[in-house]
Amino acid sequence: MQPRDLSDHVAYEAGRGIEEVARELGRDPSEFVKLASNENPHGPSPAATVAIREHASSMSSYPKAAHTDLVAAIADRWNVEDEQVWLANGGDGAIDYLHRATLEPDDAVLVPTPGFAYYGMSSRFHHGEVDEYSIDRTDEFEQTADTVLEAYDGERVIWLTSPHNPSGSTMALTEIEALAAETDEETLVVVDEAYGEFAETESAVTLIQGQDGFDARDDVAVLRTFSKVYGLAGVRLGYAVVPEEWASAYTRVNTPFAAGELACRAGLAAMGDTEHVERTVETARTSREAMREGIDAHVWPSEGNFVLVDVDDAAAVAGELQERGVIVRDCTSFGLPGCIRITCGTDEETERAIEATNAVLADLEVDAEAEVPDR
């Protein structure tokens, strides 16, 4: 007995953790700072931590009330109906739900490259095909409707990422609307806004609502997560906001109690912790600007809680930084072997990352010059 043929499936490569790296190098974990996975440098919302403690004794019960309360709070946040909020076990769970609701066998999705690998992984899990459109570094990772339409061939779902991971670029609402208008009636445009709170652009939920001069659309959905700005990556909590016409599909595609009791309670508390959110956003904006100004290499403008740095040899630079106690993301797995991604940290962490990156780049340049033979 064997599993089905998974040869076309590519494993997701997560950023390396401190414990993993410290164990591999035989060093104390306290020597390292992790700036590889776009996590919140301030940790979880303190209010969420309190909520988890207070509700720990209710873990034996299914989270029906907590689920309902969180959905209502999210719906109120976005001025939509409760039924338009599809709560999930992380943003990746919401990706699965949208694919369950749309994909027939052999339907295709259109995904960005570079981009989040799970879009394609989830499509294949649901027996869908995967096509790609390019977000080109030579164009500063600009995202436009035309860029996507050049590759579009009637796919059932189009995935946009705004802010884009790993570049940090965003896509204007006018471009998203133009894309939705130019694609087939049965094509769903999904905007992944996992990093949306860090951006100064308006959410694509506006297109679903039909506000600010836009007509309401039934072919756009938005993805959000509690992992980033709220600091709840460890409890796995995310959601999709869908058009009203899609609302009834949720009960047919979701897993029973799509998010756990403690996750829902933590999410509800974190949504009310505006101080933590504001502090996190301000830290990210300060950090990414400091890295743009301070790193001795090209750093692309970013609207996320990270920056992308052009270093020529990502594996070498990431490896050397790791030796110096700074864990960053080698973007080779994104198809960018000349780039590293650095998460925005605290002021101290950011300063350390800048100094270490500049030192590594200088040392590698010296080494390269030393290898050039005399003529």
UniProtKB/TrEMBL annotation:
Its cofactor is pyridoxal 5'-phosphate. Keywords: Amino-acid biosynthesis, Aminotransferase, Histidine biosynthesis, Pyridoxal phosphate, Transferase. It catalyses: L-histidinol phosphate + 2-oxoglutarate = 3-(imidazol-4-yl)-2-oxopropyl phosphate + L-glutamate. Its EC number is 2.6.1.9. SUPFAM superfamilies: PLP-dependent transferases (SSF53383). One of its GO terms (molecular function) is pyridoxal phosphate binding. It is an enzyme of class 2 (transferase). The keyword Transferase applies. Pathway: Amino-acid biosynthesis; L-histidine biosynthesis; L-histidine from 5-phospho-alpha-D-ribose 1-diphosphate: step 7/9. One of its GO terms (biological process) is L-histidine biosynthetic process. Residues 31-356 form the Aminotransferase class I/classII large domain. The modification N6-(pyridoxal phosphate)lysine is found at residue 228. InterPro entries: Aminotransferase_I/II_large, HisP_aminotrans, HistidinolP_aminotransfase, PyrdxlP-dep_Trfase, PyrdxlP-dep_Trfase_major, PyrdxlP-dep_Trfase_small. Belongs to the class-II pyridoxal-phosphate-dependent aminotransferase family. Histidinol-phosphate aminotransferase subfamily. This is Histidinol-phosphate aminotransferase. The lineage of its organism: Archaea, Methanobacteriati, Methanobacteriota, Stenosarchaea group, Halobacteria. The gene is hisC.
